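Repro:
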Amino acid sequence: MTDIAPRFPESFLWGGATAANQIEGAYAEGGKGLSIQDVTPQGIMFDRVDGPTADNLKLEAIDFYHRYAEDIALFAEMGFKVFRFSIAWSRIFPLGDEETPNEEGLAFYDRVLDELEKHGIEPLITLSHYETPLHLAEKYDGWVNRDLIGFYERYARTCFESYGDRVKYWLTFNEINSVLHIPFGSGGINTPKSELSEQDLYQAIHHELVASARVTRVAHEINPAIKVGCMVIAMPIYPLTTDPDDVVAVMNADHANLMFSDVHTRGEYPGYAKRFFRDKGVTLNITDQDVEDLKNTVDFVSFSYYMSICETADPSVKADGAGNIMGGVPNPRLASSEWGWQIDPQGLRVILNQFWDRWQKPLFIVENGIGAKDRLVEVDGVKTVEDDYRIAYLNDHLLQVAEAIEDGVDLLGYTMWGPIDLVSASTAQMSKRYGFIYVDRNDDGTGSLERYKKKSYHWYADVIRTHGASLQA
C-alpha cells in the first residue's frame, strides 16, 4: 500500500448503479407489461409463481417511477458524475415481440434523461437487467429460442434511436454469466432448472452472445460515439489448498466465467470452450451470420464485484457460499457479511489486473457494495443511519481500486451498488440495504417511502469531491 493518499483521475466517473425492477415500481402503469421479476416475489434465486402477488416488494419497489426527480437531485448533491440505471424492456415492448414500442414507456425514460442532464450527470444504461418480458419466457422459453435475438435487436435499436444522441455508455446484459446458475432470472428460461439440458442452456447463452454483439454493431452504426460494454459477475477464485488438483479446479471455474467476456472482447469462442462443449456432448447451432455477428466486439468490459471464492477438487468439501449466486467454497481466512458474502477488498485489485491483462479493454466497475441491516436513528434532530460498516467496506475497496490504477489498469469509473436503498435482487428484501440514502420501507411492505441521508452519503460526497484523496489508508 502506498503512503500517499490516492487520487483518482479528473475524468473518473463516480456514481451509483440501480436496476428498474428494484427501484421503479409502477409495474402496471404507463403501458408496462409484466416482466419475469413480477412473478419472483422471493428473488431471482427462487422459483417463479403464477402471477404478481401482494408480497412482491418489486411491484412498488421504492417508487422511483414517480420520485425520480427527487432521487436524482439527491445523487447530484453527492456529486455524481454518472448514474447507471436500466430500461425495463417490458416498459418499451410490453410483451417483447411487438412490432412497435410503447410510446409512454419511451417518454418516461426521456424524462429521466432530462433530469440527469439538468444536473450534469452522465447516464449509463443497461438494456437487459434481469427484466426479460414475461411473455417471452412463457411463449418462447426465453433465450433458448433464437427468435429472441430479433426481438432484442428491435428493442435495442429502438432505445439507440430514441436516446443514442443523449447516452454515450450502454451495457447489453447485466451479469450475463449468471445464466449458468439462475436461468429464469438471468435468461428468462421458463423450463425449470432441474429439467434444463446443457444443450439448451448453452444454446441460450450463444443466442445472448450473438444478440449482444449484433446490437453492439447497431449502436455503432446509429452513432459511432456510443460506447457499448458487456457486463459480468467478476469473482477472483483462489485454490483452497496448494494441491495442483485445486489449481486446475480454479482454472476450470475461471474458464466458465471468463468465456462470456472472452467472446465479447475477442469475437469468437476460445479453445477451452470448444473443448468443454465437446466433452459435454454440446453441439451449438452456429450460423455463418452468427460467426460474423460475434466479430462486433465491445468497447469496454464492465462488472460487478462483491466477493471472492475458493475452489477445490476435493468432493468432500461443501461448495456452497451462502447467498452467493455463483456458489464456490468459503475462504476460511475471510469475514462475511450478514448474508454470507465474503469480504475481500484485495480481490478487487486482483480482478482488475486479471481483466486488464487479459483483454486490454477499458474497464468499468458498475456494481460494488455491501448489504446490511441498517437502523434509522436521530442525531441532532435529523434522522440518519450511522453506517460506519458501509464506509469501511467501500473505503477499503476503493483503496484497492487506486492500487489497480497505479498498476496501470485503464478504469473508466465506479458506480456503487446501490446508492439508494432498493429491493434486493437475490432475496427481494428491503432489509438488505446498500444505499447512501435510507428509504423508509420494510420487508412487509409498510413504510412512508421517505428518503433520509445516511452518514455514508456525506462520506461518498467527500470522496467524489476530493477525487479519492479523502480515503483513509
